Amino acid sequence: MRWAFAVAVVLTFAAEARKKASPEEEALQELDVDKSGKVEQNELESFARSKGMTPDQIHQEFLSLDLNGDGVLEADEIRRTLQASAAADATPSAPSASLGQAAAPAESALQPPKVPNVITIPRSAAVDIHQDLQPEKLTEEAMRQAPAAPASEEGLDVRAEHSAERAVAELFEKKAADALASMREDLANAEKLELSARALRGQAKELETQVNSQVAQAAKAATDSIVQKALRQVKLMSQEVASAEEQAKRHQNLADEAMEQAVSAQSKISEEVRRIKADHVSPMGA
């Protein structure tokens, strides 16, 4: 998820960053609503909601970006995230592998610095972050402010943007596939547990049969205490079998529900991937 958000930030501020500031400074200026020099969680939530992210995704995103765990995002943390994302986007032909390799430098920076590198933004350099953050309007604003670029550079920007979007889509699709595989593994474990419960029930019945046979054969010689002890063992084992069966049933129900959710999520994400690829093919064909 960190890479999806980082790619969105890079695409949003790349054109403006070329002419007047570094990407991390532009990102900090755009996200820092109260101009405190830091990005708080509610400020990140405002930006992420405009990108269609859910509250749970936003929370997980903030935790992954807050490398030193102080509850705010600083310029140094944004810079590390953008650098890792840029490294992941450098090889679009293998997006999944690149994203995995880019995670190494970001994860190695998890140790909090002794003195945080906080940048205070002057009000004269602040941007009005209450403007509409829809991607098409941001693109129009960037085109108005950016100087005219050669045709070859525009072509590279378009290809880079398409590659980044494909990388994000494929990353989400891979995560959905991993979740589906995990759900299938849970279902297999539930089935194994149910088989174990059936085996225990068979053993209990066999033991009960043996006990009844022994009681019948030695009824005259056996004492009441021996009979009662054997019956108590049978009762305890029957209770264990019933408990195991109930647990197996609960696991089966949870696994079935999780499987349905995973299949539904994979279907939605696959449909979104096809839509994004179709959108990319249509402009190129035109």
UniProtKB/TrEMBL annotation:
<dbReference type="InterPro" id="IPR002048">
    <property type="entry name" value="EF_hand_dom"/>
</dbReference>
<dbReference type="InterPro" id="IPR011992">
    <property type="entry name" value="EF-hand-dom_pair"/>
</dbReference>
<feature type="compositionally biased region" description="Low complexity">
    <location>
        <begin position="84"/>
        <end position="98"/>
    </location>
</feature>
<keyword id="KW-0106">Calcium</keyword>
<protein>
    <submittedName>
        <fullName>Ankrd52 protein</fullName>
    </submittedName>
</protein>
<keyword id="KW-0732">Signal</keyword>
<dbReference type="Pfam" id="PF13499">
    <property type="entry name" value="EF-hand_7"/>
</dbReference>
<feature type="domain" description="EF-hand">
    <location>
        <begin position="25"/>
        <end position="54"/>
    </location>
</feature>
<feature type="region of interest" description="Disordered">
    <location>
        <begin position="84"/>
        <end position="111"/>
    </location>
</feature>
<dbReference type="GO" id="GO:0005509">
    <property type="term" value="F:calcium ion binding"/>
</dbReference>
<feature type="region of interest" description="Disordered">
    <location>
        <begin position="21"/>
        <end position="40"/>
    </location>
</feature>
<feature type="signal peptide">
    <location>
        <begin position="1"/>
        <end position="19"/>
    </location>
</feature>
<feature type="region of interest" description="Disordered">
    <location>
        <begin position="247"/>
        <end position="286"/>
    </location>
</feature>
<feature type="compositionally biased region" description="Basic and acidic residues">
    <location>
        <begin position="269"/>
        <end position="280"/>
    </location>
</feature>
<dbReference type="InterPro" id="IPR018247">
    <property type="entry name" value="EF_Hand_1_Ca_BS"/>
</dbReference>
